[in-house]
Amino acid sequence: NGDFVALDLGGTNFRVLLVKIRSGKRRTVEMHNKIYAIPLEIMQGTGEELFDHIVHCISDFLDYMGMKGARLPLGFTFSFPCEQKSLDEGILLTWTKGFKATDCEGEDVVTMLRDAIKRRD
Fold first, then answer.
1. Which parts of the sequence belong to the Hexokinase N-terminal domain (predicted)?
2. Could you write out the DSSP letters of every residue in 19-87?
């Protein structure tokens, strides 16, 4: 029960979703989403630029949904080869699909996302 943000990064587009789950007599699931382009200069720039762009998109989406500044549970689908050490730790092994952002391979992408969120706050 509640509101959740889901992220899907797997190519030149990035999807942000708001999932609203309501329980009770009649369970309902409502989903809203927006797709954002990832420009080539971001795909091939620095990791910090990439994750800052992702966080900018999240912020834009929440503003669009009338939820600016909301703090919500977040799920992150990151469709690149990773070594998943735990539920909230994924080490990027190598970029694919045209991505070449620097300072990401060998790093924990969850930490990179969290750091970008902190920079935005």
1. 1-120
2. EEEE-SSS-EEEEEEEEEE--HHHHTSBHHHHHHHHHHHHHHHHHHTT-TT----EEEEE-S-EEEEET
User: Per residue in 62-119, pLDDT tens?
Assistant: 999 999 988 999 999 999 999 999 999 999 999 999 999 999 999 999 999 999 999 9
- Inter-helix orientation angle 109-120/47-64, to 10°: 60
The domain segmentation of the chain, as residue ranges, is 1-80
DSSP-derived secondary structure letter, 116: H
Superfamily (CATH) of domain 1-80: ATPase, nucleotide binding domain (3.30.420.40)
Q: Please count the CA atoms within 13 angstroms of the CA of 94 that sit on its side-chain side.
A: 2
Pairing of strands 82-86, 13-22: unpaired
CA distance 95 to 98: 8
